[in-house]
Amino acid sequence: MTHDAVRLDSVTRRYGSLTALDGVSLSFPAGSFTAVMGPSGSGKSTLLQCAAGLDRPTSGSVAVGGTELTGLGERRLTLLRRERVGFVFQAFNLLPSLTAEQNVALPLRLAGRRVPTALVRQALAQVGLADRARHRPAQLSGGQQQRVALARALITRPDVLFGDEPTGALDTRTGREVLGLLRGMVDREGQTVVMVTHDPVAAAYADRVIFLVDGRVSGELTGADADSIATRMTRLEAAPC
Ligand SMILES: Nc1ncnc2c1ncn2[C@@H]1O[C@H](COP(=O)(O)OP(=O)(O)OP(=O)(O)O)[C@@H](O)[C@H]1O
Ligand SMILES: [Mg+2]
Prior knowledge:
By secondary structure, the protein is an alpha/beta fold. About 35% of the residues lie in helices and about 25% in strands. It has 8 helices and 10 strands. The protein has helices at about 45-50, 75-85, 100-110, 115-125, 140-155, 170-190, 200-205, 225-240, and strands spanning about 5-15, 20-30, 35, 60-65, 65-70, 85-90, 160-165, 195, 210-215, 215-220. The strands form 2 sheets. A 6-stranded mixed β-sheet has the order 6-7-8-3-9-10, with helices on both faces. The radius of gyration is 18 Å and the shape is globular. The relative contact order is 0.18. It binds adenosine-5'-triphosphate (ATP) and magnesium ion. Adenosine-5'-triphosphate (ATP) binds near residues 40 and 45.
């Protein structure tokens, strides 16, 4: 039986009088690859932040790997984020003074754990960067930096990897390489991935695409190709508010 890596139940997030997320219920089965799309301001980043325990919903509940985040104190929430959740952003957010392998090892070090060199090397090899371990971010291309960020996000073997436009800063070809890596991690390792993207071609790498409009789920597509995803997006963006 498959279980849910992440589950959101009636999640609402308000900022003052603005409702960024409006009663969203979603589940992300373990080993699935989901893309989240929607117009700018529709709540995609807010959804990811709430699902990852980086932000707290105003109401509703979130569970990661069967653990309810609601009611967890800051310390336990930080631990859960560190050990069970991986996050990659459009900006790679690597520490410039650290080498690739030091950046990858950072989450384990922060958790006070020993970091076997072999584990770090294996994580870098998984993203095709075995020969770049000693390079600093400035000595790596954008795609290579994002792959270091991926290796760093995956070193703790998180229940779920979230990406907020992880290919947004990459050129088309490099972006496709990173998407191929994500797809491979889902297929080979059973990694759960949830990724926000504006690009229908990127979304077509996922098993399922969820569409958000005004903080609500407006529908989803399963196993869709880039053309049908693009058609749905165009319809959403044309819809009156
Ligand atoms: N910290 C915040 N304080 C106040 N309002 C916020 C905050 N974060 C997000 N919002 C508002 O919540 C709404 C949803 O924002 P969010 O960043 O989730 O959108 P998005 O779908 O990720 O957009 P984009 O595609 O432009 O990244 C927007 O109206 C935004 O202005
Ligand atoms: Mg966003």
